Amino acid sequence: MSYRARTSLDIMRGLERESALLPAARLLESPGLQEALGSQLFESVISQEALGSQLFESVISQEALGSRLFESVNTQLARIVEPWQDTFASISDWETSLTARMATLQTPWVLGDLLEHSMTGFAHLSRLSDAVHTEEPYSEAVGELVADELGEGVEAEQDDSPAARDKAAIEAGLNPDLITFPPTAYGEVVIAAGFKFSLPHSPIPQAIESADPDAVFDPIHGQVMTELEQQLRSVVEKCLKALDGEKWVRRRVPEEMRKRWLERQDEARLTGRSVYPPIQYADFMDLAHVIGQANNWREAFEPIFQNRDDLMASFQRLHPVRKAIAHSRPLDRVDVLFLFSEATRIFNALGISVLN
After folding, report:
1. Residue among 306, 314, 217, 209 at smallest CA distance from 266
2. Residues 6+ apart with CB under 8 A from 196
């Protein structure tokens, strides 16, 4: 997949006036951008001869950057923000919000040779964050946007390098601009774009046999994924128990899966460990299969998640991330992006706000 034809100017120009640009000085409100550009600001990125003293006096002129940067600017910015214009009172408000988010970045966050893609990528990350934080994160509009930006989830081999995983994700449809940032700065970038988590503690599982008073369930372990998995287990048990009472596991879970849960429960019992309800022995993708099972979906989960195919795509994107966390492997940029975006959608669908 080639990089999409967008420019750094696309995200710095407003739609309200055909010729209106943000003052060039506002571009430099991000300390991380200033440091990243350094002396290149007047040398390789934008030449001193082109800008001269006008840098802080006026907008970037067409003569300075050439007509190429001005072609379809309004169309390009509109494409980024159009589905979410209701999020802000006006496009200029969104533009102001975007500039403010950039200004929080303190470390170098753009790739010098791909400056334009880092900047447009930040705009796309910000729009993605705004979209998945809506009250209906599995609406058709959000689903289309997420699919367009993230592509399909891909299974990565354990020994694949971060570069190989990035390449596989891009080949599966990921917008490469979303990860066109220095790897060391990516965590800060996605947080600045709006992916901030302030999570409630998930329901603490209570042992039903051989309770160990020293056993502690710490929701910090596994961070966002642990919270997500426990919240999904809780909603599956709650919704299906409401339909079939204590017999829900037998009536609502495929036989082979149910046997596997009960075998794990028996193993805990035989080894003298705390024994928890069967749902606590479900694998992450077990939860996807139970939720997506036709009768369960129709009778319990469709009102919550709205779109089964889209939800299953979320599980597919999260599954490799969940495996990496389970095996104490570090997450790369794609992993972080998928975790933050898809976890936010699921939490919001469950009515759990993750914003501060």
Report:
1. 209
2. 354, 355, 356
State pTM to two decimals: 0.69
β-partners of residue 140 are: none
Asked if 24 and 31 count as a contact pair (C-beta separation under 8 A), the reply is no
In this structure, what token pair is assigned to residue 236?
């599956």
CA dihedral 164, 170, 172, 173 (to 10 degrees): 170
C-alpha span between 126 and 192 (Å, rounded): 8
Whether residue 138 contacts residue 306, with contact meaning beta carbons closer than 8 Å, is answered with yes
Residues 299-336 as b/e (b if ≥16 CB within 10 A, e otherwise) read: bbbeebbbbbebbbbbbbbbbbbbebbeeeeebbbbbb
Measured on CA atoms in the order 231, 315, 174, 165, is the torsion positive or negative? positive
Which token pair is 313? 């795509």
Would you say 261 and 281 are in contact if contact means Cβ atoms under 8 Å apart? yes
pLDDT single digits (tens) 252-264: 999 999 999 999 9
